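We close this part of the discussion by returning to an individual protein. The amino acid sequence and the backbone structure tokens for this protein are reproduced below:
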Amino acid sequence: MPMETDDLSEDDAPACVPVADEATGEIRLLSERCSTCIFRPGNPFRTTMPERIRSMVADAVADEGHVTCHSTLPGSAAAGVEPAICRGFADTYGDRSLALRFGDALGLIREVPPPS
């Protein structure tokens, strides 16, 4: 299982990053996996941080939460990029995420392109 960027340590990751638009209630979901997605085969973090990734994903699944794409996290993302749910997580565990289930049921999922 997958997660993080070179310059983002476990202690730097925000505890809760909103992926919903405050005005519309839409849940932002990447339209495809980012180029460094922790769910991509061959991602170096799968071998260098396997326990961190397993733990993060297990916690998200246990809490009916989600994993926010590391490329959209504040401090890692370019200006104007809003946090969004990781496409790899959604493809693998989306049926276990409360935000994705509710968003889907209410028609409030807004797919956004991954940051360049």
